[in-house]
Amino acid sequence: MTFRATILTLYPEMFPGPLGVSLAGKALDAGTWSLDTCNIRDHGVGAHRAVDDTPAGGGPGMVMRADVLGNALGAVLEENDPRPRLLMSPRGTPLTHDMVRDLAAGPGALIVCGRFEGVDERVIEGRGLKEISIGDYVLSGGEIAAMVLIDACVRLLPGVMGAEDSGTEESFETGLLEYPHYTRPQEWEGRAIPDVLTSGHHKQIADWRRAEAERLTRARRPDLWAALQKSRGSDASEKP
Ligand code: SAH
Description:
It contains seven helices and nine strands.
């Protein structure tokens, strides 16, 4: 099954952009995933193909029109389209690795990229759009956010990452941040690679990496550490 991404945007020329190079680009060329764009402007109204209008109730900025977006969605949605319909939005559910894994295991996604102040609430409700945020900051548009989401999904597709298990030890897969990496040269500017990593003792290396991953997670992400402790606690209580 090919992971299919359909992007609704006012700037289709931004795609594939960074998704066209490296791992994601090779996988795109290989047909592991596909990308198509819909220019929302093509569904704009009037001689000027307007896509936005002033906010009801007043205030700054412009709002993307529900009718325009509804028509754009209508044009790209296929009959019984199984793909989730997403709207990139700073108000959305924060994107996590768990969500990425779920999405990557599915048929793809339809992704609406907002611009201006955002989109008319009625199209979110009427078309069942799920709002997703890539973090607590405001971008000028949803395109880069959509690229972040797609990049994270595509690298998990079968065959995309070189080493089959290079994904399994990564940050967030284990609930821990990843341990530090080193490579040649053995010494750089007076700093040596930790001895254990060149010792050849697989068990000691694994133990060191685990301890480092735990140390970093505790120090940098107390929230992840607390969640892990909680899940370990509940695992333990499930055992007879
Ligand atoms: N007025 C809005 C911000 C609009 S920014 C607010 O205060 O919430 C314009 C568009 O950029 C949004 O419609 C959304 O599609 C995109 N965007 C901005 N920040 C984002 C984020 N953190 N995550 C995902 N999309 C974002």
